[in-house]
Amino acid sequence: MLSITSAKTAHVMAHPLFFFHPNPLAIPRRVHLPRFTSLSLLSNNRPIAMRLLTLLACPSLRSLDFGMPKMGLDPSFILDFFSRPNPPPPLRSLSLTGQEPFVGAVQDTGHDTLRNLFSLLGGLEKLDLRAPFVDSEILRLLVLPREEAQESGQHPLLPSLKEINMAWHGTSELIEQLAEELVFSRYTAIGGTNLEEVLLSFPGFFRLQERERVKACVDRGLVLNYL
């Protein structure tokens, strides 16, 4: 792992043997990768993946793709990873994938943790969330506050977003309403970057396409696709 300190990108499939060392005391507390701009990490071993995030320090990171498709991913480790540098890395693209199928998401996603994480990523331009990181609370969290709310001091999360990719398995009238509000608020953003492209995958997607405000955004140039 120390041999990659001069690299700019890495694609890692974390495995228990990845951390085997004949002398565990020789493993450093932190591996500084000042030139790293892109990291893709895929693992089904939670302790190993979390250990890797604890070890790495990437102050120049611009893209993170973190997936644990067969296990739940604790977003608090992601928050800690971005909280350590001051200022946080200038991330532009974030992708999070957790356990599927969609089970117990409301209890397990850690809404407050994700809110705190998003508050650190003001320059984020692309967000890719897959189950279990998408539910009604996350959609509500990503809706931009109205102009009067911003004027009264309510700061928007992720004001620079241009592209949102989301996939989840459950749906309801509330979910569809929030998805519509998210799309409309981001595309007609005031005091932030206007959304350019949305990719969604959920059972009510085709009904969402027929909602008047969504159709108006598409007519004005928004790219709306089904994953």
UniProtKB/TrEMBL annotation:
Q: What is this protein called?
A: F-box domain-containing protein
